[in-house]
Amino acid sequence: MDHLRWSLDERVQTSSLSDLDQIELVHEALPEINFDEISLNSSVSSSSSSVSSRQQLPWQVPFFVSSMTAGHEGSAQINEALAGLSERHHILVGVGSQRKELGNLQASQEWRSLRKKFPGAILAGNLGLSQLIQIPEAKLQDQLGRLIECLNAQVFFVHTNPLQEVLQQEGTPQFRGGLRAIENLVKAIKIPVVLKEVGCGFSLETLKKLNGLGLYAVDLSGKGGTHWGRIEGARFEPNSPGYRVAQTFDNWGMTTLESLLAVQGITCDYKIWASGGIRTGLDIAKMITLGADMVGIAQPWLKAICGGPSQQPEDVALRLDQLFARLSMELKISLFCTGCASVAELSRKKVWKWRKFPAN
Ligand SMILES: Cc1cc2nc3c(=O)[nH]c(=O)nc-3n(C[C@H](O)[C@H](O)[C@H](O)COP(=O)(O)O)c2cc1C
Predict the structure, then answer these.
(1) Within its chain, how far is the Cα of 322 from the centroid?
(2) N or C: more exposed end of the chain, with fewer CB within 10 A?
Protein backbone atom coordinates (compact mmCIF):
# COMPACT_ATOMS: atom_id res chain seq x y z
CA MET A 1 0.00 0.00 0.00
CA ASP A 2 3.00 2.21 0.69
CA HIS A 3 3.85 2.12 -3.01
CA LEU A 4 0.38 3.21 -4.06
CA ARG A 5 0.28 6.07 -1.57
CA TRP A 6 3.73 7.37 -2.46
CA SER A 7 3.14 7.13 -6.20
CA LEU A 8 0.41 9.78 -5.79
CA ASP A 9 2.80 12.21 -4.08
CA GLU A 10 4.14 14.81 -6.55
CA ARG A 11 7.64 14.58 -4.98
CA VAL A 12 8.20 11.14 -6.54
CA GLN A 13 7.42 12.45 -10.04
CA THR A 14 10.27 13.53 -12.35
CA SER A 15 8.06 15.56 -14.72
CA SER A 16 10.53 18.48 -14.83
CA LEU A 17 13.14 16.08 -16.27
CA SER A 18 11.00 14.52 -19.00
CA ASP A 19 12.32 16.77 -21.84
CA LEU A 20 9.02 16.26 -23.66
CA ASP A 21 8.56 20.01 -24.01
CA GLN A 22 11.67 20.09 -26.20
CA ILE A 23 9.64 18.37 -28.90
CA GLU A 24 6.94 20.14 -30.90
CA LEU A 25 4.61 18.84 -33.55
CA VAL A 26 4.57 20.71 -36.86
CA HIS A 27 1.35 22.65 -37.34
CA GLU A 28 -0.59 22.09 -40.57
CA ALA A 29 -2.70 25.12 -41.44
CA LEU A 30 -4.45 23.25 -44.28
CA PRO A 31 -5.21 19.80 -42.89
CA GLU A 32 -7.64 18.77 -45.70
CA ILE A 33 -9.53 16.54 -43.22
CA ASN A 34 -12.77 16.97 -41.29
CA PHE A 35 -12.25 16.53 -37.55
CA ASP A 36 -14.96 13.85 -37.34
CA GLU A 37 -13.10 11.68 -39.88
CA ILE A 38 -10.16 11.20 -37.54
CA SER A 39 -9.73 7.66 -36.26
CA LEU A 40 -7.76 6.53 -33.24
CA ASN A 41 -8.31 2.89 -34.12
CA SER A 42 -5.07 1.03 -33.88
CA SER A 43 -5.98 -2.66 -33.72
CA VAL A 44 -3.03 -4.56 -35.10
CA SER A 45 -2.00 -8.00 -36.23
CA SER A 46 0.60 -9.66 -34.10
CA SER A 47 3.20 -11.47 -36.16
CA SER A 48 5.68 -11.90 -33.34
CA SER A 49 7.54 -15.17 -33.09
CA SER A 50 6.11 -15.43 -29.58
CA VAL A 51 2.66 -15.87 -31.08
CA SER A 52 1.90 -19.20 -32.69
CA SER A 53 -0.35 -17.85 -35.42
CA ARG A 54 -1.15 -14.39 -36.67
CA GLN A 55 -3.50 -13.03 -34.12
CA GLN A 56 -5.56 -9.86 -34.03
CA LEU A 57 -4.68 -7.84 -30.95
CA PRO A 58 -7.96 -6.34 -29.94
CA TRP A 59 -7.25 -2.90 -28.49
CA GLN A 60 -8.70 0.05 -30.34
CA VAL A 61 -6.67 2.98 -29.09
CA PRO A 62 -2.90 3.40 -29.31
CA PHE A 63 -2.51 4.05 -25.59
CA PHE A 64 -2.81 1.74 -22.61
CA VAL A 65 -2.94 1.57 -18.84
CA SER A 66 0.55 0.59 -17.64
CA SER A 67 0.80 -2.21 -15.09
CA MET A 68 0.16 -1.11 -11.53
CA THR A 69 -1.82 -2.93 -8.93
CA ALA A 70 -1.87 -6.49 -7.71
CA GLY A 71 -2.05 -8.48 -4.56
CA HIS A 72 -2.38 -5.75 -1.92
CA GLU A 73 -5.16 -4.26 0.07
CA GLY A 74 -7.56 -2.26 -2.08
CA SER A 75 -6.14 -3.62 -5.33
CA ALA A 76 -9.27 -5.62 -6.20
CA GLN A 77 -11.35 -2.42 -6.44
CA ILE A 78 -8.68 -0.67 -8.48
CA ASN A 79 -8.35 -3.58 -10.88
CA GLU A 80 -12.12 -3.79 -11.26
CA ALA A 81 -12.30 -0.09 -12.08
CA LEU A 82 -9.57 -0.49 -14.71
CA ALA A 83 -11.05 -3.68 -16.17
CA GLY A 84 -14.38 -1.84 -16.50
CA LEU A 85 -12.59 0.98 -18.33
CA SER A 86 -11.03 -1.58 -20.65
CA GLU A 87 -14.36 -3.21 -21.41
CA ARG A 88 -16.06 0.13 -22.14
CA HIS A 89 -13.31 1.55 -24.34
CA HIS A 90 -11.33 -1.46 -25.66
CA ILE A 91 -8.13 -0.17 -24.09
CA LEU A 92 -5.34 -2.53 -23.02
CA VAL A 93 -4.88 -2.66 -19.23
CA GLY A 94 -1.79 -4.12 -17.58
CA VAL A 95 -2.29 -5.63 -14.14
CA GLY A 96 0.48 -5.32 -11.55
CA SER A 97 3.04 -7.99 -10.77
CA GLN A 98 1.52 -11.45 -10.34
CA ARG A 99 4.43 -12.55 -8.17
CA LYS A 100 2.14 -13.68 -5.33
CA GLU A 101 0.25 -16.11 -7.58
CA LEU A 102 3.46 -18.00 -8.41
CA GLY A 103 3.53 -19.69 -5.02
CA ASN A 104 -0.07 -19.31 -3.96
CA LEU A 105 -2.83 -20.98 -5.96
CA GLN A 106 -5.48 -19.22 -3.90
CA ALA A 107 -4.22 -15.79 -5.01
CA SER A 108 -5.15 -16.47 -8.64
CA GLN A 109 -8.80 -16.59 -7.53
CA GLU A 110 -8.83 -12.78 -7.52
CA TRP A 111 -7.95 -12.74 -11.21
CA ARG A 112 -10.51 -15.41 -12.08
CA SER A 113 -13.31 -13.41 -10.50
CA LEU A 114 -12.08 -10.21 -12.19
CA ARG A 115 -12.16 -11.94 -15.56
CA LYS A 116 -15.60 -13.38 -14.86
CA LYS A 117 -16.98 -9.93 -14.09
CA PHE A 118 -15.32 -8.31 -17.12
CA PRO A 119 -15.18 -10.90 -19.91
CA GLY A 120 -14.61 -8.20 -22.54
CA ALA A 121 -11.61 -6.53 -20.87
CA ILE A 122 -8.25 -6.61 -22.66
CA LEU A 123 -5.76 -7.55 -19.96
CA ALA A 124 -2.00 -8.01 -19.78
CA GLY A 125 -0.29 -10.20 -17.17
CA ASN A 126 2.88 -9.11 -15.41
CA LEU A 127 5.90 -10.56 -13.65
CA GLY A 128 9.26 -9.16 -12.60
CA LEU A 129 12.38 -10.38 -14.39
CA SER A 130 14.07 -11.17 -11.08
CA GLN A 131 11.19 -13.54 -10.26
CA LEU A 132 11.14 -15.02 -13.76
CA ILE A 133 14.83 -15.89 -13.49
CA GLN A 134 14.12 -18.02 -10.41
CA ILE A 135 11.66 -20.31 -12.23
CA PRO A 136 13.33 -23.48 -13.53
CA GLU A 137 13.05 -23.82 -17.31
CA ALA A 138 11.11 -27.09 -17.01
CA LYS A 139 8.42 -25.40 -14.91
CA LEU A 140 8.04 -22.22 -16.99
CA GLN A 141 5.22 -23.41 -19.21
CA ASP A 142 3.22 -24.70 -16.26
CA GLN A 143 3.75 -21.74 -13.90
CA LEU A 144 3.42 -18.95 -16.43
CA GLY A 145 0.59 -20.79 -18.18
CA ARG A 146 -1.32 -20.65 -14.89
CA LEU A 147 -0.75 -16.89 -14.47
CA ILE A 148 -1.97 -16.27 -18.00
CA GLU A 149 -4.90 -18.66 -17.77
CA CYS A 150 -6.39 -17.27 -14.55
CA LEU A 151 -6.46 -13.79 -16.07
CA ASN A 152 -7.05 -14.91 -19.65
CA ALA A 153 -4.32 -12.42 -20.51
CA GLN A 154 -3.85 -11.34 -24.12
CA VAL A 155 -0.34 -9.95 -23.59
CA PHE A 156 2.34 -10.64 -20.98
CA PHE A 157 4.61 -7.96 -19.54
CA VAL A 158 7.94 -8.76 -17.92
CA HIS A 159 9.27 -5.83 -15.93
CA THR A 160 12.92 -5.17 -15.32
CA ASN A 161 13.58 -2.83 -12.40
CA PRO A 162 17.16 -3.10 -11.13
CA LEU A 163 17.16 0.30 -9.39
CA GLN A 164 13.95 -0.44 -7.51
CA GLU A 165 15.01 -3.94 -6.47
CA VAL A 166 18.36 -2.78 -5.14
CA LEU A 167 16.92 0.14 -3.14
CA GLN A 168 13.84 -1.68 -1.89
CA GLN A 169 14.14 -3.05 1.65
CA GLU A 170 12.45 -6.30 0.61
CA GLY A 171 13.98 -6.26 -2.92
CA THR A 172 15.42 -9.14 -4.96
CA PRO A 173 18.28 -7.60 -6.98
CA GLN A 174 19.18 -10.86 -8.76
CA PHE A 175 19.31 -10.32 -12.50
CA ARG A 176 21.94 -12.83 -13.66
CA GLY A 177 20.46 -14.94 -16.49
CA GLY A 178 17.88 -12.31 -17.47
CA LEU A 179 18.29 -12.51 -21.25
CA ARG A 180 18.09 -16.28 -21.21
CA ALA A 181 14.99 -16.23 -18.99
CA ILE A 182 13.24 -13.86 -21.40
CA GLU A 183 14.13 -16.06 -24.37
CA ASN A 184 12.82 -19.16 -22.58
CA LEU A 185 9.62 -17.41 -21.60
CA VAL A 186 8.92 -16.32 -25.18
CA LYS A 187 9.26 -19.94 -26.29
CA ALA A 188 7.15 -21.29 -23.44
CA ILE A 189 4.02 -19.16 -23.81
CA LYS A 190 1.77 -18.43 -26.74
CA ILE A 191 0.85 -14.79 -26.20
CA PRO A 192 2.99 -11.74 -27.09
CA VAL A 193 5.67 -10.90 -24.53
CA VAL A 194 6.53 -7.25 -23.86
CA LEU A 195 9.60 -6.35 -21.81
CA LYS A 196 9.25 -3.12 -19.86
CA GLU A 197 11.16 -0.92 -17.46
CA VAL A 198 9.31 0.83 -14.64
CA GLY A 199 10.59 4.40 -15.09
CA CYS A 200 14.34 4.26 -15.81
CA GLY A 201 14.27 3.55 -19.56
CA PHE A 202 16.54 1.52 -21.87
CA SER A 203 19.88 2.55 -23.35
CA LEU A 204 20.91 1.96 -26.96
CA GLU A 205 23.28 -0.85 -25.93
CA THR A 206 20.56 -2.65 -23.95
CA LEU A 207 18.07 -2.32 -26.78
CA LYS A 208 20.58 -3.93 -29.16
CA LYS A 209 20.86 -6.94 -26.83
CA LEU A 210 17.12 -7.53 -27.06
CA ASN A 211 17.14 -8.42 -30.77
CA GLY A 212 16.67 -12.09 -31.54
CA LEU A 213 14.81 -13.00 -28.34
CA GLY A 214 11.37 -13.15 -29.99
CA LEU A 215 9.93 -10.26 -27.97
CA TYR A 216 6.77 -8.71 -29.38
CA ALA A 217 7.65 -5.26 -28.05
CA VAL A 218 9.82 -3.35 -25.60
CA ASP A 219 8.06 -0.71 -23.51
CA LEU A 220 10.77 1.88 -22.81
CA SER A 221 9.14 3.20 -19.62
CA GLY A 222 11.71 5.90 -19.03
CA LYS A 223 12.26 8.75 -16.62
CA GLY A 224 9.87 11.70 -16.68
CA GLY A 225 7.03 10.48 -14.48
CA THR A 226 6.84 8.03 -11.60
CA HIS A 227 10.35 7.36 -10.27
CA TRP A 228 11.00 4.26 -8.19
CA GLY A 229 14.27 5.55 -6.75
CA ARG A 230 12.21 8.35 -5.22
CA ILE A 231 9.38 6.06 -4.07
CA GLU A 232 11.70 3.57 -2.38
CA GLY A 233 13.61 6.46 -0.80
CA ALA A 234 10.40 7.94 0.57
CA ARG A 235 9.56 4.62 2.26
CA PHE A 236 12.67 4.88 4.49
CA GLU A 237 12.84 6.90 7.70
CA PRO A 238 14.09 10.41 6.76
CA ASN A 239 17.87 10.65 7.07
CA SER A 240 18.31 6.92 7.67
CA PRO A 241 21.17 5.31 5.69
CA GLY A 242 18.72 3.76 3.16
CA TYR A 243 17.03 7.13 2.66
CA ARG A 244 20.36 8.85 1.95
CA VAL A 245 21.46 6.17 -0.51
CA ALA A 246 18.13 6.35 -2.37
CA GLN A 247 18.40 10.16 -2.50
CA THR A 248 21.65 9.84 -4.45
CA PHE A 249 19.69 8.05 -7.18
CA ASP A 250 16.54 10.13 -7.29
CA ASN A 251 17.24 11.44 -10.81
CA TRP A 252 18.63 8.16 -12.15
CA GLY A 253 17.67 6.76 -15.54
CA MET A 254 17.22 7.48 -19.23
CA THR A 255 14.22 9.65 -20.06
CA THR A 256 11.54 8.11 -22.24
CA LEU A 257 12.50 10.60 -24.96
CA GLU A 258 16.22 9.69 -24.74
CA SER A 259 15.37 6.00 -25.07
CA LEU A 260 13.05 6.66 -28.00
CA LEU A 261 15.69 8.73 -29.79
CA ALA A 262 18.32 6.04 -29.08
CA VAL A 263 16.20 3.46 -30.83
CA GLN A 264 16.11 5.48 -34.06
CA GLY A 265 19.74 4.56 -34.66
CA ILE A 266 19.24 0.78 -34.73
CA THR A 267 17.11 -1.90 -36.36
CA CYS A 268 14.94 -3.83 -33.91
CA ASP A 269 13.00 -7.02 -34.48
CA TYR A 270 10.44 -5.95 -31.88
CA LYS A 271 8.00 -3.06 -31.69
CA ILE A 272 8.69 -0.03 -29.55
CA TRP A 273 6.16 0.98 -26.93
CA ALA A 274 6.72 4.11 -24.88
CA SER A 275 5.70 5.05 -21.35
CA GLY A 276 7.06 6.98 -18.38
CA GLY A 277 5.87 10.55 -17.83
CA ILE A 278 3.19 10.53 -20.52
CA ARG A 279 0.47 12.82 -19.24
CA THR A 280 -1.52 14.20 -22.20
CA GLY A 281 -2.85 13.15 -25.59
CA LEU A 282 -0.27 15.52 -27.10
CA ASP A 283 2.50 13.56 -25.33
CA ILE A 284 1.00 10.37 -26.83
CA ALA A 285 1.07 11.95 -30.31
CA LYS A 286 4.73 12.98 -29.85
CA MET A 287 5.69 9.43 -28.91
CA ILE A 288 3.86 7.96 -31.91
CA THR A 289 5.38 10.31 -34.45
CA LEU A 290 8.81 9.59 -32.92
CA GLY A 291 8.28 5.87 -33.56
CA ALA A 292 6.29 4.33 -30.68
CA ASP A 293 3.69 1.79 -31.66
CA MET A 294 1.76 2.01 -28.36
CA VAL A 295 1.97 4.50 -25.50
CA GLY A 296 1.48 3.69 -21.81
CA ILE A 297 0.31 5.77 -18.88
CA ALA A 298 0.30 4.61 -15.26
CA GLN A 299 0.03 7.13 -12.39
CA PRO A 300 -2.69 9.43 -13.85
CA TRP A 301 -5.19 6.52 -13.94
CA LEU A 302 -4.46 5.79 -10.30
CA LYS A 303 -4.89 9.46 -9.50
CA ALA A 304 -8.27 9.44 -11.25
CA ILE A 305 -9.33 6.41 -9.20
CA CYS A 306 -8.07 7.51 -5.79
CA GLY A 307 -8.06 11.28 -6.17
CA GLY A 308 -11.77 12.14 -6.22
CA PRO A 309 -14.14 12.88 -3.36
CA SER A 310 -16.18 9.67 -3.81
CA GLN A 311 -15.01 6.06 -4.05
CA GLN A 312 -18.41 4.81 -5.25
CA PRO A 313 -17.72 2.57 -8.28
CA GLU A 314 -19.90 4.70 -10.60
CA ASP A 315 -18.04 7.90 -9.60
CA VAL A 316 -14.65 6.23 -10.05
CA ALA A 317 -15.79 4.97 -13.49
CA LEU A 318 -16.88 8.49 -14.43
CA ARG A 319 -13.47 9.94 -13.51
CA LEU A 320 -11.70 7.23 -15.54
CA ASP A 321 -14.00 7.90 -18.51
CA GLN A 322 -13.26 11.62 -18.24
CA LEU A 323 -9.51 10.96 -18.33
CA PHE A 324 -9.95 8.59 -21.28
CA ALA A 325 -12.05 11.22 -23.11
CA ARG A 326 -9.48 13.97 -22.43
CA LEU A 327 -6.54 11.89 -23.68
CA SER A 328 -8.51 10.82 -26.79
CA MET A 329 -9.59 14.39 -27.58
CA GLU A 330 -6.04 15.76 -27.17
CA LEU A 331 -4.66 13.01 -29.37
CA LYS A 332 -7.32 13.65 -32.02
CA ILE A 333 -6.58 17.39 -32.02
CA SER A 334 -2.88 16.59 -32.42
CA LEU A 335 -3.73 14.44 -35.45
CA PHE A 336 -6.05 17.06 -36.92
CA CYS A 337 -3.61 19.95 -36.54
CA THR A 338 -0.78 17.97 -38.11
CA GLY A 339 -2.98 16.96 -41.03
CA CYS A 340 -3.08 13.26 -40.14
CA ALA A 341 -6.33 11.32 -40.49
CA SER A 342 -5.11 8.27 -38.59
CA VAL A 343 -2.57 7.11 -36.05
CA ALA A 344 -0.80 5.17 -38.81
CA GLU A 345 -0.38 8.41 -40.79
CA LEU A 346 1.00 10.25 -37.75
CA SER A 347 3.51 7.47 -37.33
CA ARG A 348 4.50 7.52 -41.01
CA LYS A 349 4.76 11.28 -41.48
CA LYS A 350 7.19 12.11 -38.62
CA VAL A 351 5.69 15.52 -37.98
CA TRP A 352 7.99 16.60 -35.13
CA LYS A 353 10.69 19.21 -34.67
CA TRP A 354 12.96 20.40 -31.87
CA ARG A 355 11.54 23.37 -30.03
CA LYS A 356 13.46 26.59 -30.63
CA PHE A 357 14.45 28.11 -27.31
CA PRO A 358 14.63 31.92 -27.28
CA ALA A 359 18.24 33.17 -27.42
CA ASN A 360 19.31 34.85 -24.16
C1 LIG B 1 1.49 2.32 -7.97
C2 LIG B 1 2.30 1.75 -9.09
C3 LIG B 1 2.58 0.39 -9.11
C4 LIG B 1 3.32 -0.16 -10.16
N5 LIG B 1 3.52 -1.51 -10.20
C6 LIG B 1 4.08 -2.07 -11.30
C7 LIG B 1 4.13 -3.47 -11.46
O8 LIG B 1 3.66 -4.24 -10.60
N9 LIG B 1 4.69 -3.97 -12.60
C10 LIG B 1 5.19 -3.14 -13.57
O11 LIG B 1 5.64 -3.62 -14.61
N12 LIG B 1 5.21 -1.80 -13.42
C13 LIG B 1 4.64 -1.25 -12.33
N14 LIG B 1 4.58 0.11 -12.22
C15 LIG B 1 5.29 0.96 -13.20
C16 LIG B 1 4.38 1.50 -14.30
O17 LIG B 1 3.85 0.45 -15.08
C18 LIG B 1 5.14 2.50 -15.22
O19 LIG B 1 6.16 1.81 -15.90
C20 LIG B 1 5.75 3.67 -14.44
O21 LIG B 1 4.92 4.06 -13.38
C22 LIG B 1 5.98 4.88 -15.33
O23 LIG B 1 4.78 5.39 -15.84
P24 LIG B 1 4.08 6.75 -15.29
O25 LIG B 1 5.13 7.81 -15.29
O26 LIG B 1 2.96 7.03 -16.26
O27 LIG B 1 3.57 6.46 -13.90
C28 LIG B 1 3.83 0.68 -11.18
C29 LIG B 1 3.54 2.06 -11.14
C30 LIG B 1 2.78 2.59 -10.12
C31 LIG B 1 2.49 4.06 -10.14
Answers:
(1) 20
(2) C
pLDDT in tens, 182-192: 999 999 999 99
CATH of the domain at 231: 3.20.20.70
d(CA 150, CA 64): 21
CA–CA separation, 263 and 278 (whole Å): 18
The answer to whether residue 355 is domain-embedded is no
Taking only the tens place, the pLDDT of each residue in 244-299 is 999 999 999 999 999 999 999 899 999 999 999 999 999 999 999 999 999 999 99
Q: Residue 232: which domain range?
A: 2-30+42-325
Q: What pLDDT was estimated at residue 54?
A: 42
Domain for residue 203, yes or no? yes
- 37, part of any domain: no
Question: Which of 11, 111, 156, 198, when mutated, tests ligand 1's pocket best, judged by the most ligand atoms within 8 Å of its CB?
Answer: 198
The whole-number average pLDDT for the span 307-331 is 96
Residues with CB under 6 A from ligand 1: 3-4, 7, 66-68, 70, 96-97, 126, 157, 159, 196, 198-199, 221, 225-226, 275-278, 297-299, 302
Q: How far is the CA of 10 from the centre of ligand 1 (A)?
A: 15
Specify the ligand 1 atom closest to the Cα of 275.
23
Q: How many domains does the chain have?
A: 1
β pairing state of 23-25 and 352-354:
antiparallel
Please give the model's pTM, rounded to 2 decimal places: 0.95
Q: Which of 100, 299, 306 to mutate to test the pocket of ligand 1 (most atoms within 8 A of CB)?
A: 299
Please give the DSSP secondary-structure letter assigned to residue 21: G
End-to-end CA distance of the chain: 47
- The torsion angle over the Cα atoms of residues 65, 216, 253 and 259, rounded to 10 degrees, is -100
d(Cα 342, Cα 39) in Å, to the nearest integer?
A: 5
User: What tens digit of pLDDT does each residue of 46-98 get?
Assistant: 555 454 444 568 899 999 999 998 666 678 899 999 999 999 999 999 999 99
Ligand 1, atom nearest to 157 Cα: 11
- Which residue, by CA, sits nearest to atom 2 of ligand 1? 68
